[in-house]
UniProtKB/TrEMBL annotation:
Organism, as annotated: Streptomyces sviceus (strain ATCC 29083 / DSM 924 / JCM 4929 / NBRC 13980 / NCIMB 11184 / NRRL 5439 / UC 5370)
Region of interest (Disordered), ranges: 205-319
Biased composition (Basic and acidic residues): 239-255
Biased composition, class Basic residues, residue ranges: 228-238
Residue stretches of biased makeup (Gly residues): 288-303
Name by which UniProt lists this protein: Ornithine cyclodeaminase/mu-crystallin
InterPro entries xref list: NAD(P)-bd_dom_sf (IPR036291), ODC_Mu_crystall (IPR003462), ODC_N (IPR023401)
GO cellular component annotations of the record: cytoplasm
UniProt-listed PANTHER family: KETIMINE REDUCTASE MU-CRYSTALLIN (PTHR13812)
Ranges annotated as biased composition (Low complexity): 278-287
Length: 319
């Protein structure tokens, strides 16, 4: 029998705390050699205002199944991403489940971004959100599970969507992305913009900019070419012993982005998509709460190339 897991089904069984634990374990146990067949990402333009993508196969050690993920991305639509994840038996290829791809993608991308932000950014900072969509929703929810946060401000091209987001999270609306960057040390950006939203001059010294969406080379966002000398950086997932000792956070020796005593602030840091290939597997696996389905990863795509003046990151959650 094939299980059909709709958006409503998934949102009923998924919990941020459980998903964050599963994603954390996935990062800590990530091993490029643990899966013998590398995943592939196939993308094509369409004669319509969107693109089509297939991710094959989704594999995870110890799970006797694989996934095929098919997405349609139409940035002007709401939601912008629609698709399906097909879970097949590794024994005979039987179709075990069909899952709403947009929901799984939003949860794993948003929560993985929250986890990376928690590990890399300073504590108690005001949080700025650019783009009040599904991934930003999960980023803020996940961050709230992991740590206390300061004030929240949000900007979106839709004033109504920004106001609703602010009301849900006890924040307030600002009128531009630049105002967000001026007001906050920690900026979460999740938009479909193809043009840079911020320049170096817009950001505060020592600011951390987290942008979980995948971008093709030359596209904009929080750290496009106009970002100048914004430094892209990340950390490898913390060792298990560090994770246990620090309660889920590595010993950072002070807040990233800030200088120590007598030292000037460190450069702005842009945390972009790169890292664990099997994040979707963590949500669809034994601890992922998808109705008991033992699923493989939602995709095995490779990390994208970044703009020429921004180095790819190491070990940060990917979109």
């Amino acid at each position: 029998m094939t299980l059909l897991l709709t958006r409503g089904d998934l949102e009923t069984v998924l919990e941020p705390e459980t998903c964050l634990d599963a994603l954390r374990d996935g990062f800590l146990n990530a091993d490029a050699d643990s899966v013998s067949i590398a995943g592939q990402r196939v993308r094509t333009d369409l004669p319509f205002p969107g693109t089509a993508t297939a991710l094959i196969p989704g594999l995870l050690p110890g799970i006797p199944a694989y996934t095929v993920k098919v997405n349609a991305k139409f940035p002007a639509a709401r939601p912008a991403l629609r698709g399906v994840i097909c879970l097949h038996s590794g024994t005979d290829g039987a179709l075990l489940a069909l899952m709403d791809s947009a929901t799984v993608t939003a949860w794993r991308t948003g929560l993985a971004a929250a986890l990376g932000t928690h590990l890399l950014a300073g504590a108690g900072e005001a949080v700025g959100v650019i783009g009040a969509g599904a991934q930003a929703e999960l980023m803020v929810r996940g961050l709230g599970v992991l740590r206390p946060r300061g004030a929240l401000v949000v900007h979106d091209t839709s004033a109504d969507r920004a106001a609703q987001f602010a009301a849900r999270h006890g924040g307030r609306v600002l009128s531009s992305a630049a105002e967000i960057a001026v007001a906050c040390d920690l900026v979460l950006s999740a938009t479909w913009s193809r043009e840079p939203l911020l320049s170096l001059a817009d950001t505060r010294p020592g600011a951390a900019l987290h942008e979980p969406r995948r971008r093709r080379a030359g596209q904009g966002g929080a750290g496009g070419r106009s970002a100048g000398r914004v430094r892209a950086r990340g950390r490898r997932p913390p060792a298990r012993r560090e994770h246990g000792r620090a309660g889920g956070r590595p010993d950072r020796g002070g807040d990233p982005g800030r200088g120590g005593a007598g030292r000037p602030p460190r450069p702005r840091e842009r945390h972009g998509p790169h890292g664990l290939r099997t994040r979707g597997a963590a949500l669809a696996g034994p601890r992922g709460r998808l109705g008991g389905v033992r699923a493989g990863p939602s995709g095995g795509d490779r990390a994208p190339g970044g703009p020429a003046d921004v180095r790819p990151l190491t070990g940060c959650p990917r979109s």
